[in-house]
Amino acid sequence: MTRVVVVDDQDMVRQGLRLILELAGIDVVAEARDGVEAVALVAEHVPDVVLMDLRMPEMDGVEATRHIVDAGGPSRVLALTTFDVDQHVVDALRAGAVGFLLKDVTSESLVEAVRRTAVGESVVAPAVLARMMDHFAASPPGGAQEPAAFAELSAREREVLAMIGAGLSNAEIAEALVISMATVKTHVRHVFAKLDLRDRAQAVVVARDAGLHA
User: Fold this and answer.
1) How far apart are CA 121 and CA 41, in angstroms?
2) Taking a C-beta distance cutoff of 8 angstroms, is the pair 168, 187 a contact?
3) What share of residues in the chain are helix, strand, coil (percent, to 5)?
4) What's the whole-model pTM score?
5) How many whole angstroms separate alpha carbon 21 and alpha carbon 7?
6) Residue-by-residue DSSP string for 32-82
7) Where residue 181 sits, what CATH number does that domain have?
8) What is the pLDDT of residue 125?
């Protein structure tokens, strides 16, 4: 059974999330009101998924995510917020969150996202990636610097990463480069392995931070 810790500073929100998840057969092992409690409870219960609100008192969800990920445990953080994509969401992805949902997500989509996160998938909807593009366009990074690991990328792999950073799907990349989908997937797999990327959302952040442009 999937085990979850729910983190939110509002009692009614936590209770609602618990009810939705438990009705679907998911075990909510603990609830936290802020990031400090979240870090302690995750260390105690080692859940499969941490459903993490981003804006909270004491310690916000971004900092709590960073602590949980840095601890090196198996728990995966799924960020949850009432806000549209902003710097908090980008920072949460940088901190190690593997997905992002808005709080107006349907019950069915929430349950599906938690289950997918628990088995190692990343849950960031295409619409969220599109809003991330808008966020980056509105606040382009200054003084972009490439990580040392970029030296391991081939010219084509850099090109593919830049296109991921621009929000293109694998199909769109294949069309733009006039290569097969299988070849695109191979390039993407190599990029993720060489840069130790978890998912496409993290690849978008890395590409944008490095100043890559498609």
Assistant:
1) 23
2) no
3) 55, 15, 30
4) 0.75
5) 13
6) ESSHHHHHHHHHHH--SEEEEESS-SSS-HHHHHHHHHHTT-S-EEEEEES
7) 1.10.10.10
8) 61
